[in-house]
Every structure is written in C-alpha cells, then in structure tokens.
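the two lines:
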Amino acid sequence: MTRWLQFLRHYGPVPRNDNMYDETIQRSARRQGIAPIEFEHPAQAEIVNCFGHATADPVSVILTGTAGDGKTHLCRQIWKALKGQEEEWASDSPYLTLQSRYPKDRKMWPGSDDPTFYRSVKIHFIRDLSGWAPQQGAEWEAGKEEMLQRCCRSLFTSDTDEIFLIAANDGQLIESWRRLKETEYVRQARLVFEELLVEDKKQQPGVRLKFFNLSRASSAELFDRAISAFLRHPGWQEQAEGSPGENEVFGPKCPIRRNYELLQTELVRSRLRALLELCDYNGLHVPIRQILLLLTNAVLGHPDAKDHLMVPADVPKIIAAGTVSKASLYNNIFGGNLSELRRQTITIFDYLERFQIGYETSNRIDNILIFGEGDEHLGPYFEELLVKDQFYGADSRFYASKNAYIEGTNESEDHASEFMQMLVSQRRGLYFKIPKNKEEELGLWELTVFKFSGEYLDNVLSVVKNHGIIKRPIVSRLVKGLNRVFTGMLINSDRDLCLATGGNNSQAKVSRLLLEQVSLEPSKGEKIIIHFDGSSGRVVLSVFFSSDISVDFNLTLIRYEFLSRVALEGALPASFSKECYEDLLAFKSQLIAAYMKRQTRERAAEGSTIGLKLLALTEQGMPDPKFVEIVP
Amino acid sequence: MTPVLQPLPPPETFDQSSSMWVDEAIWGHRLYDEQIPWMVFLEFLNVFYHEVGKSRAFEEPNGLNMLKYKAAHRLYLRNILFNNPHLAEIRLNYPNDSSRWDEWLKRMKSSTGITHPQFNYLKDHFHSFDDFYEVVSLIRSTSLEVNSNKRWTSKFAFPYGKDCLYEDLDNTATTNDRRFFGRTGEVLYLMLCRAQRKQELLVALTRKLGKTDSTWDSIIKCLQPTDDEPMSGDRANAFVPYDQHSSFDELAEDWLAVLRLNIPGFDVFPHLVNLAGLHLIKYQLGVSRQVLGLTPPLSLVCEVVAPKKTLVREISCDLYQENNLLPAQAVEAYITNIEVGEDWQRALTDNGAFEKCRKILRDKVRWGEDYDGSPDPQQLIASLRQAAMRRHHQHVANIHRNYGREIGLVSKRGTMKLRYAPTDALLKTLLFANVESRIELHQFLEKLHRRYGLVFGDKDAERVLPKDEFDKKAFQANSRRLEQRLASVGLLRRLSDGCAYVINPYRVEAG
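prediction for all of em together
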C-alpha cells in the first residue's frame, strides 16, 4: 500500500549518484511493480520522426542537454519506434545497434514491400556518451575511435549505410571529440558542433546532422506535462484507497495528502507555472529531473524527517507533535525544508531562490500578516488567507510567536528570528493563495524581486505570443528607461529613443552628444516594436532605422524589470544593475553602428561646418537639444 | 624568454638628471611611477606622430637609443581648456554676446606661457560665446585628469587626433620637467621599435588611428590659432637596454590583436593603455627575475573577488608582496654582480685599488664623483648600494604597485592588503587581446597563464604552487566566480555542465 510514497522518494532530493538516476528509477520501478512517472517530451514527435516513416533519407542525430533533460528517455522512444528489443535496451550497455530499412532512392517510401526498393541502414545508438567514452585523460580505444571517425565522415558524405544517434551532455560532446585523432572530418565536425551549440541551431546546410539541444525546451511546457503525469499517477489512487484513519498517512489531517490536493488546485499550479515560465524568460532552463524533484519535495518535504522527506510512518508522529505546519507545500516549493547547504546545490532551488519569494514584501502584505488579526480593514484578508488555511496558515505556533513579537516581551534573538522564519513561510504561502482577482490590489508580484513579472507575463508575453499589440504606456516606459541609461541623465522623454554618445567613448556613463532621436511611432522608416520570435522563443524589442536596417534586443524578464524600474524610480537597482547595464550599453553600441550604416548610405556631400546636437534637460526633464555650429 | 640578458652599455652622453645609472642599466631610462599608463600612452603618441611625420615610425635609423623628437605645446588650447575658470561666470553675469567676448578676451590676456596672447581667432569659429562655452565644456568632460588637483599644465585633452597632442609642462608652462611625462612613453616607443612584428603593428595602428571620427580633432583645431605655435626643443636620451626582449614582442602582439577587432571609434584606446601598463609591469618583473637568475616563470595568482576571505586571496597577497620586492632585489643583485665580477676582483688586488674601483663604477654606473667617504672599495660599493636602493625606492620600485592599480590588476577591494584582483575592465582587455572569436573557458585560462602568468583556476594553480599550499576546492570556486563575472558582462556563454565558451563580441574585422 505504501510502496508508492517509498518509490516517489527516488525523485526527491535524496543523496544519490546522478549518473545512475534513470537506471535506479527503472530498476526500482520494475522491482516494486510501479510504473515510473512518464510523459511525452514536447520534442519527442519531431525527434522520433527523424527515424521513422516521416523521413526517406535519415541523417545522424545528436541529443544534447544537461543531466535530467530526458535524453536517455527519448533514445528509448526511438528504439521502441524502430522495433528494438526491450531486453536489449534493459542491458547496461551504453552502446547498441539496430538495422532498419529505408528507401533506396532516398526520396520516397515505396508502395511495395519488395526488398529491392530498400537499403539497409545500421543505426548506432550511443545512449550515454559519458559512459562509453574513455575516462578523463585516457585515450580512445581503437575500435571506438574508428567508429567515431566514420561518424564524422558520415556527416559530410552520403555514401554510407550507417547513421548515429548520440546522447551526450554538451561538455562531454566537445571534450570527447577533442580527444579523437585530428583528421579533417573530425576538425570540421567539431566546428559544426560548436557552432550549433553556441548559436543555438538545429542544423547546418550541407551537413547531414540534426542537432537537438534539449536545454532549449520551455521549462513551463515541460512543467505542464510533468505535473499532469505526476498528479494522475495511479499510485495516489491506491494511497487514498483503504480509508486511512484520522491520524494516519493520507488521512484527513495528513500533510502529504493536503500537499497533494493543493498541487491539484488551479491557483497553485498556475502560480508555480508562472515561476517556471519566468525562469525561461530569464534564460534559465529547468530540466525534467529538477521539475520532478521540485514536485516530490513539495509534497513530501518536512524539515524534521529523515533526508527532510516524510515517509508514511512519520505522519502520525508529526500530527501528534503539532508540527504539521512545517510541512507547508508553500515552503517546500522553495526547498525551505532542506538544509541551506543542500538547497544551494540543487539547481531548481537555486533558480527559484532568485525570486526571493518570502524575503521580498510590501507594507501592505506585512501589515496583513502581523497586524491583520482583528483589524478593521485588513481583518477580512487575514481571515481569508491565514485563518481559513488550517494546515499552513495561522496556527497556534504562529499566533504565539506573532504576539511575542508584537508585544516585544521576549528580547532574545532566537525568538525574533523564529518569527522571521515564519513570516518567510507565510509570505510564500500568500504567493500561492492570493486569488487572481486580488492580484493587483494586494500587489502579488511585490512578493518577488521582479515586481513587474505579472505585467510581463500578462501584458507583454501573452500579448506578443498572440501577435497582439502591447499597450502604449508599457512601450513608452521601456523607451524612457532606455533613454535614461543611454544618456545617463534622468530624462523623461518616452516618444523617441535618444541615441547619445560621450564623444570619446561609446559607453560613457553620461552621454550628452545627441546623434539621433529614433521615433517610437512609425515615421519615415523608423519605428520601435516588441514582438515574439518563435524560433528562439524570445520576446524581442526591435529598433528600425529604415525598413532594412534594424537592431534586435532580447527583452528578458530581468531586463524588463531593470528598464521599468529605471523609468519609474530613476535609480539603477543595485541587485542586478551591472549585468543589465553592460547589456544595454552593448545594445547602444549596436544601435549607433546601425545608425552610422544608414547615415553613410543616405548622406550626400559633407557640409563645410561641423554641427553638434547637445543634450540638456528642461525642468520637466524633457530633452532640450541645443545646436552648436563650428566653422573650421 | 631570453635566458641570458645582454644589456647594452650606458650611453656616452645621457640625461644629466640621472645621478647614477643602475635602474636605467637594468630597465631603461626610464620607467617612472608617477606617469600612469594613460600618460605613458599620450607621451607615446607624441613620439609616434612625430616619427610618422618623418617617415621613420618604429625605426631607429641612427642606431639604438638615438631617438630625438619634438613635441607640441599648444598653449592656446591648454589655457582655454584648463587655465580658464571664467566661462560660466562670464556667461552668467554679462548680458550680451559682444560684452561676454570682450570681458573674456580681456581676462585671457593674463594667460600663461604665451608671449602676446591673442584669442580673437575664436570669434571666427564660433557663432556665439554661448556655443564656445558648450564646446569647451564638452571637451573638458572627456579630458584626462580633469578632476584631479594636478597642475593645469598636466591636464590633457582626449587624444582625438594629432592636433590634440602635446607634452606635459611645468607650472610656468615653459619646459617639460619630466614630472608626469617621465619618458616611459618614449621607452614604450623604443620597445615597439624592437618588436618583431612592428611592421604589421605600424600598419594596423595607422589604419585604426586613420579610421576614427575626425570631428573632434577638427573641433580642437578650431580652438587653436591657425599659425603654428612653437614646438618644444629636442627631446632625446631615452634608453632601452635590450635590442630584443620577449616583452616587446608580446606587447606588439597584444596591441595587434586588439587593433584588428571591430571595436568602434576610440573605444580601443583604454585597452591599448591597459596592455601597455600590463606589459611594462611584466617587463620589469621579468627582467628582474632574469637578473636574479630565477628560472621558473612569473606567477600572478589572481583572486576573483569573493565576499569572504579565501585561501586564494591569501596566496595572492603573498605573491604580490614577493613580486613587489623583486625589482629591489634585482638592483641589489646587479650591484653584487659588479662586486664579484672579474674587473672589480682584479682591481682589488692591484695598486691604487680604490681609484681603479672608482673608475669601474664611473664606467658602469656613472657614479662615484661625489663620493667623499673613506677611500676603501668596500665602503665605496656599500655607499653605492645604499644610494642606489634609496633612489630605486623613490620611483622605480613603485611601478608594480602603481601601474598595477591603474590598470585594474592590483587592488585592495574588500580587504586591507593589496593583491592581484583583476577588474572587469582588465578582464575585458585580456579577452579582447587573446580571443579572436570564441574559445572554451579552460583554453582561455590556459592562454592567460601561458602568456601572462595569470592563475585563476585549479589546473594552473596546481602546477605553480607547492603541494601543501594548493587547495583544489578554493581554486575551483575562484574560477567559477570568474565564470560568473564574465557571464555578467556578457562575454561568456555557458552551456550545460561546466562547458562554457568565452566570446569576443567584436570579431576580427574582415580584410
């Protein structure tokens, strides 16, 4: 009965050897007769189609990405699609082969079964390059080396009857290839891999290779599939059967059950998904393994349990000890149940920590938490958000600590810090509890360090994904932020983009020389638009100098936040200023180069005088250009 | 590295300002600590443009160390820019254009360094006093040392072009008292004259300087009268004691690498300045090691600044101190070499030993005339040693620290002691000089180690440090921090699992 929860632990943050992850899970699953959590990877169809009837002339495929991205799993899907033997796959060998047949003419699948229309192709499966390649510092064995040499050759010639499927981490791929004997094919192959990896491409013209970097998959999309597979696993059903008692695991007071139910609610799911989506737009990819770890930890986490994950036997004890609130899903999601050391080494918690949820707050939020009880205005919120939550809201521990804090009776440091910890936990809870219709009123996103996240998701991302137009005030605000960074002055202009330099340094902090003001509204070929780039999955801000001269800027969440804050608050936010600032100055450099390009194209004869446009600000902070002419 | 140094003998005539020839014999005349790398670059440009004008750039047609050049003074320009606090006040208090000009011209009659100051020509170039004021403000805002409390004659306009260049002058604006243009720019020039790739460098440098926007040079020309102002007298006596040295070639290579990139406009200058400073430091330390007969190459263990004290910081502090003492040790060794040398030993046994020894010193280090101690060779050389060390510590000993701080190699950030902690700006310079378009991070670190002795990560640290001092984890954390730093300034592309590429955003120009 309780095997499900025992099995589920394998997915959580337990100490283990990561290289054996997939095997351990598979072995444990077979032994206990439980199906592992599985779902179809969004890229699966495209990848499997590289080998099936969708293609008449298959080429080699490389699957790369970080640990836990699903490479091995996808290899297995291909193996199955090609009718490979299950027992063969179940062996430990990192290298397998299959024969398959493909059209001889390499153009179309023949209608008949006549073997003369087909050619036999050998497919080499290197499903784990790190397990197959020699150890650090050692040389390649002759047989393996020869095979990889053939592989390199096959990328550039079509006269072979073998193709390769290789699953490897990026670093492993480059590293292994460097240890091969340097023939011309090897050298070319290495260059191709490097180019595809760094430039984020799937193929290069003329090269017989399809390159899938699974680290580019959308974390949000993976989350959707992962959480569905997680929640509808029959293991939960079995757990609920047999009507557990009041204080038993999965009974009415059980925190594991409570967490499981919370994960099923629309609000919790959507808030969690939002976080993962924001990670995507900050250039942070979350592998599948990390998502499953997050979910498992969220449900089973408790700071006092062994490995900080609850087992069924723990539940009655926890209920008896009154520490159910410590198993708060809201806190577990951020790894709050783990030790700091452990938490810092786990990718997903590192990423989520960057949002600083629990530590960021506003007066409004803290007033509700600390003084809301019984207050005339805030009382209803306190009721709704804390009292109603009998598991993780205000419990006796919370009240006791809160009152002690308010009264200031106990001067000890520990007491204050205990309450601070509880506040962190409660703020995290609020992030998942504030209803959609109260998001703006209560300032949901002020609970994170990216206060403009909500706007980014709702008014920018979803708008551009649907080819809509972004509201004017938002674009104006971004332009104002850009202007302030570009000129180094607290300028209020938001209708044109001011390209200014310092004269001797394109990246000077204060730039008073105005080169050009690019119109926001379309005018004489100039315009500034925000759109979605489907191929890279990015939100892009484009500045057009003419119909064919433009510069793109990847508008990540962090840059959006930075520009918005600069526009509204006027100061460079210290927390992420350096990185964004450099990015923006580099963008300015590119803009200036594009502007020069247009000028050289359009400019007729040079005048005999030298004209300068100097930027000063009016009292309202509007640009006040001053023209100075010098006669040489 | 040339294993054995073959220094050139001291010149027949040399600058009378040198009271002896010890530091100069080892490193040249001269390396000067108060001449920060930007000033070195400016002095270099003065020499360079002069020699280009005479069609002999990077050549030494009259023999080694015979450099002779003239520099401009441009006192009209300098008085306007830096000896002229009147503009804002006049603009405020005087009602119309002509009264403003009148008042200002009146005040400028007391300009320094010009015999009969006549600033009327300015009215031909500017439509109004107001315009003039704006332009002067702008030029001041990009000038060098403008906010320091240095004397006005030691403030410099940004080198937009050859009409902006001039040499440092004393307070009366009459002579170059070598206070801030202490000849290190001339030394830099001579070094490049002896680099193997100097022809390529000449082409690249002239091309880059020719491609920059000439607007500002033209504007600065407008601030100067049309008839030529008098140039300086002959500047001569720069001396570099080696006709070749690996430092010269490495400097030329780095400058070449940076000049070939697509870096816009004048943005390339700060990198040239940093590289000049870095190679001068390496030259000084490298030569010191050769004089001392130390074979292992120079090591600069660098800390990527961490919030807490780390082992890497401690090691870096220690190594900094060690390196800082090298030049002084080299001076000692140089003098000791004289003492144990054949000539001296022989002279000791001869008649009139003292006079013979004194002559040896006069020949080798141009010192001894003013010695008035007891006529004993031991005392004589002890006295030389004392004088030499004292003199060394005044200036030459400080190059490592001063230049290091100026280029962002040496710093006290986050702690109380000096150590090697490269700033982002210096990291950028190093990247631009060593990465053509992209290479893996560990290859980049290996290159930095091989070419400059810089140590960031565990692989290089292990090779360089004694076993009991080496801590793998600390250095791994250090290179991880370096990765983050480079990523945060957009120069690193991190793929998964520790595979990272260092990327130069300004790929090599085509053609």
